[in-house]
Structures are given as C-alpha cells and as structure tokens.
Amino acid sequence: QQQVKQSPQSLIVQKGGISIINCAYENTAFDYFPWYQQFPGKGPALLIAIRPDVSEKKEGRFTISFNKSAKQFSLHIMDSQPGDSATYFCAATFGSSNTGKLIFGQGTTLQVKP
Amino acid sequence: NAGVMQNPRHLVRRRGQEARLRCSPMKGHSHVYWYRQLPEEGLKFMVYLQKENIIDESGMPKERFSAEFPKEGPSILRIQQVVRGDSAAYFCASSPQGAANQPQHFGDGTRLSIL
C-alpha cells in the first residue's frame, strides 16, 4: 500500500522528442507528488510537484499530469535535450502524517540522443 | 555553498567496522531525513529527525543502525558492525518544516563501500 510503481525503467528519446515517465500508487492518503532529477554522483533535485486537487502542472518544458481516479501521474518532458539525460524519480508522501517522508518509485534512466 | 553538506563523499570500511556519516542541513533548516539508495534501486526512507529528537524511524533496520541530530553540529547516521549488504549511497535531505508539501533538499550523498 505504500508502494509507488514507476515505468519504464529506462527510456531513450531523440533530441526534440517528448519523454514520458509514468507512476502509479495505491494509497489514497498520498497527497503530495514530487518528481526528482538525479545526475550521476549527485543527490536528487526537486524538479516539479503536484497535489491531487490539480490535474496538470507545467513548469517550462516539464509537465505533470495527474489522474486521481486512476491513481496515476506522469511526467512529460517536452523538446527533450541531451542535458535532460538523468535518472528521474517520482515520489509520494502522506499529508496526514505530517512528517513529509517520501516514498520513491524505482527510477527511470533517461537518455536523450543528439 | 548553502546547500546540504554530506561527508565524507566516499567511505570504505571492512566488515565489522563502524561507519559514521555526517549531514549538515541547509541554513535555517531544522528537519533532516536520511534515505538509502541501493544499486539500481530508488531511495528508501530511513529516519526523520528534528533537533535532538527522532520523529520517525520506521525505515531504520532494527539492529546496528542509529541516528542523531544534536542541538549543535551535524546529524549523524551510525552503522555498527557493517556488513556487505550495507554498501549503498546514503542521502540526507533537509527541509524548513516537516510537513508533507515542504520541499526536501538533498545532499550529494555518501557512498559507502564494505570490503
């Protein structure tokens, strides 16, 4: 019930294409869904986040789409660039617990080919 | 650099030794989280601390692992009698509050290798 399932495990996209990463969760108590970007040898960095009362959030080339009824959310990277090559993690957390501990998906390694 | 500072960046220990990992949160942050990342896996929550208090240690192994965040100084994650399975990257994150929608800022981790 505390799992967040992420797919695909790896993704190769051509420069200028759209990268799509999907996540699904079971526990409806989750109410905050951030995405993190991680480069090799570095810590995860917050990219964009969404709450379940919003169906879509866009920041620059990054968009989160949220489907509350299906308990799914996805990250879209428009006009993908080689500099976007990194590992992406979706996450979820419980607002009711008020501790903020993050439950992470397994990660997606994105490679954008020039 | 006002970010989360972790040291050492790399730590090598032999089986049975102790490992101490340190984390200095961002300035003004009094909430610290520790996560472990095994090879080819996502990050797993270990423990959440505020100054001088452990708030949630539900992800900590029952034995050999402990954490503290003293009034002065960095947060410490301590692993006693290390085993090969402890080899992983350990990340610390800090936030200004422990609420669910407060962004957590991560350090660059400590890569622990057990010989």
How do the helices and strands line up, and which of them pair or pack?
The complex is a heterodimer of chains A (about 110) and B (about 120).
Chain A: E1 4-7, E2 10-14, E3 19-25, E4 30-38, E5 45-50, E6 56-59, E7 62-67, E8 72-77, E9 86-94, E10 103-104, E11 108-113
Parallel strand pairs in A: 2-11
Antiparallel strand pairs in A: 1-3, 3-8, 4-5, 4-9, 6-7, 7-8, 9-10, 9-11
Chain B: E1 5-7, E2 10-13, E3 19-24, E4 31-37, E5 43-50, E6 53-56, E7 65-68, E8 75-79, E9 88-95, E10 105-106, E11 110-114
Parallel strand pairs in B: 2-11
Antiparallel strand pairs in B: 1-3, 3-8, 4-5, 4-9, 5-6, 7-8, 9-10, 9-11
Ends apart, CA distance between termini of chain A: 40 Å
Mean pLDDT of chain B: 92
Number of strands of chain A: 11
Task: Specify Rg of chain A, calculated over alpha carbons.
Answer: 14 Å
Largest interface (C-beta under 8 Å) = A-B, 28 and 31 residues
Order of helical and strand elements of chain A: EEEEEEEEEEE
Order of helices and strands of chain B: EEEEEEEEEEE
What is the number of strand segments of chain B?
11
Number of helices of chain A: 0
Mean of residue pLDDT values of chain A: 93
As an assembly, this protein is heterodimer
Unreliable stretches of chain A: none
Strand fraction of chain A equals over 45%
Structural class of chain A: mainly beta
Helix count from the secondary structure assignment of chain B = 0
Helical fraction of chain A equals under 10%
Major sheet attributes of chain B: 7 strands, mixed
Strand-residue fraction of chain B?
A: over 45%
